Amino acid sequence: MDGNGASGRDALISSARHLFAEQGIDAVSLREVARAAGHRNTNAVQYHFGDRDALVAAVVEPFEHDVGARRAALVDVLASEAVPPMRSIAGALVRPSAAMLEAPEGRAHLRIVAELIVDMDRFNASTGGADNHLVEWDRLARSNMADTTLPLHRRYAAISLCFGELGRRAATRRRPDHRLFVSDLIDLVTGVLLADVSDETRQLLDERERQRTQKQLDTPTEKAAP
Length: 226
Description:
This protein has helices at residues 6-23, 30-36, 44-48, 52-79, 86-98, 104-116, 120-127, 132-143, 154-171, 179-194, 199-218. By secondary structure, the chain is mainly α. The chain folds into 2 domains: 1-50, Orthogonal Bundle (Arc Repressor Mutant, subunit A), CATH 1.10.10; 60-207. α1 crosses α4. One of its GO terms (molecular function) is DNA-binding transcription factor activity.
């Protein structure tokens, strides 16, 4: 294969998507990606992308732009409502990504995202800023959640649950109908966002806040130079 043209680059991206989904992002060598793409030059990845992180970004970012556009449209509609239903907010997180279960490349993408989402810094770096739609979703969810739940950062638990379950679904044998799975996942995410804070959790939150306050009081402040 001609390793220098656009077709060679596209072949690397396609091979990387398949291998990353099946084996894990860090379990696949760049040489394996080059060989699977039919490149004679085993350094083809370095030639086209430079390093693994840039290759991962090339694999992930185009899909995230498409998903992001769909999610942003849903978030915009909900943000215009006085009190949007929490299940609709959960649906704005789940449905745009769940649509990718219908195609092989989409399922591969979901498996990769499920691995990346564990480390949000790596996920954000891999999407090249394309996923600010998650920031907007987070802002919408936060503004409609009970104040008592905000210190627990349950929006991140909801995001982790959403993409973890989508990745698991994408890795299972192909099913012809995902509607029940998607609806149930929306229910689960809604439950995370709406769950009450128990007395035990509230007491532990108060204890943590007291400890933080005491630590600040015990920390000497630097005096300004004369």
